[in-house]
């Protein structure tokens, strides 16, 4: 896949979010990151994570957000009952980024961003910084309940496979561990 922006798309992007420094917990970041995955020439740009500034590119992005307005266990706009999960109200975004550090060592940054639209709830972000593409894959595993082995959720697999399309060392890890990374269904009843 080789998809590059045409001049018009480039100009629109420069006028829009490209010129701002994006905080990775912002909604603008999620929109930007999802859009970046559609192109093979990720934009180098300034971001902040937990107040720390860095320059990098979005290599891959995935989200467990329920998109079609379906809520589970409560009426939209009302608080979630204790213990209830609703992926329209609380979800996780995953972004894999390529970062140029101060001393010019290329690093990967894996962001897991806990999102919530429930008033009073903070957005939470966890970070993994590593120069090693295999560590990126390892960081995408999530502990399962009831003693099942850890697994890679679909949004994490989506981000990893997108990153493999634009980053050679991630692609090599994907080739080696293809069977470990769930396939992302193109058209799925649960997609
Ligand atoms: Zn809800």
Biggest sheet, in brief?
Answer: 6 strands, mixed
Radius of gyration: 17 Å
Q: Tally of extended strands?
A: 6
Adjacency order of strands in the biggest sheet: 1-2-3-4-5-6
Structural class of the helix and strand makeup?
A: alpha+beta
**Helical content class:** 25-40%
Order of helices and strands: HEHEEEEEHHH
Write up this protein.
- The chain is of the alpha+beta class and 191 residues long.
- The chain contains 5 helices and 6 strands, in the order H-E-H-E-E-E-E-E-H-H-H.
- It has helices spanning 7-15, 27-36, 133-139, 154-166, 168-176, and strands at 22-23, 45-49, 52-63, 90-100, 106-116, 124-130.
- Strand 5 and strand 6 form a beta hairpin.
- The radius of gyration is 17 Å and the shape is globular.
- The mean pLDDT is 88.
- The structure holds zinc ion.
List keywords for this structure.
191 residues; alpha+beta; 6-stranded mixed β-sheet; 6 strands; binds zinc ion
Task: Lay out the secondary structure.
Blueprint: H1 7-15, E1 22-23, H2 27-36, E2 45-49, E3 52-63, E4 90-100, E5 106-116, E6 124-130, H3 133-139, H4 154-166, H5 168-176
Parallel strand pairs: 1-2
Antiparallel strand pairs: 2-3, 3-4, 4-5, 5-6
């Amino acid at each position: 896949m080789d998809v590059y922006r045409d001049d018009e798309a480039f100009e629109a992007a420069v006028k829009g979010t490209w010129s701002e420094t994006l905080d990775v917990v912002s909604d603008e970041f999620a929109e930007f990151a999802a859009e970046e995955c559609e192109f093979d020439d990720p934009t180098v740009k300034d971001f902040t994570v937990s107040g720390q500034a860095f320059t990098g590119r979005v290599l891959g992005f995935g989200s467990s957000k329920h998109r079609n307005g379906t809520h589970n266990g409560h009426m939209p706009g009302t608080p979630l009952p204790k213990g209830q999960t609703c992926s329209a109200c609380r979800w996780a975004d995953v972004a894999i980024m390529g970062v140029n550090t101060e001393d010019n060592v290329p690093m990967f940054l894996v962001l897991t961003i806990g999102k919530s639209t429930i008033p009073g709830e903070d957005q939470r972000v966890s970070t993994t910084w590593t120069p090693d593409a295999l560590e990126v894959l390892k960081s995408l595993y999530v502990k399962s309940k009831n003693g099942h082995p850890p697994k890679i959720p679909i949004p994490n697999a989506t981000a990893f496979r997108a990153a493999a399309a634009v980053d050679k060392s991630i692609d090599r890890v994907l080739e080696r561990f293809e069977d470990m990374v769930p396939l992302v269904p193109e058209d799925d009843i649960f997609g």
